[in-house]
Amino acid sequence: MLDTLKRPVDPSEHPLLSKTYMVPTPAIAEMYARVRQCIRRGVTGAVIYGHTRWGKTYAIRYCVRLLNIELPRAAVLTIGMPRNPSRSEALFFGMLLEAARHERSDSGSVLKRRLRLYHKTGRNGRARGW
């Protein structure tokens, strides 16, 4: 009888083996609810903070994955703090362009980088092609 069961996923591609699964803990679910609340209210940015090794990166990856599924036309960008922080606008816009996978993220003036990011996301914040 077990031989007649069809598996939905080939055992060699199962998320447990490839470690591509994500499980929303209550804290992650609460964080995602707050992110969605920020989006509904039009909050233009947020900071996720917490103690070292408490799962912030995992939670952010979960939220990004879910946002890309639930809001496929939204531009979802994440950037981390550089090891040697600088107060440079060019660096900031370069990091945003890199997060948006722009091929020229590290060249041009601040204005040119800002405009490339603007044209990448469009006036309404939705992702567009290059």
Polypeptide structure, described:
With 130 residues, the chain is mainly alpha-helical. The protein folds into two domains: 10-72, no CATH class; 77-130, no CATH class. Helix content is 45%, strand content 0%. The protein has five helices and no strands. The protein has helices at 15-18, 26-41, 56-70, 89-99, 110-121. Helix 2 (26-41) crosses helix 3 and helix 4 (89-99) runs parallel beside helix 5 (110-121). The longest helix is centred in the first third of the chain and has 16 residues, at 26-41.
Brief overview:
It contains 5 helices and no strands. It is mostly helical and 130 residues long.
What is the topological layout?
Elements: H1 15-18, H2 26-41, H3 56-70, H4 89-99, H5 110-121
Helix pairs in contact: 2-3, 4-5
Please estimate the helix content. 40-55%
Query: What is the averaged pLDDT score?
Result: 82
Question: How many separate domains make up the residues?
Answer: 2
Give the low-confidence spans. Answer: 123-130
Number of distinct helices: 5
Radius of gyration: 19 Å
DSSP strand count: 0
Helix and strand content put the structural class at mainly alpha
Task: Report the principal-axis shape.
Answer: globular
- State the major sheet: none
Strand content: under 5%
Element pattern in H and E: HHHHH
Distance between the termini: 53 Å
Keywords:
2 domains, single chain, 130 residues, mainly alpha, globular
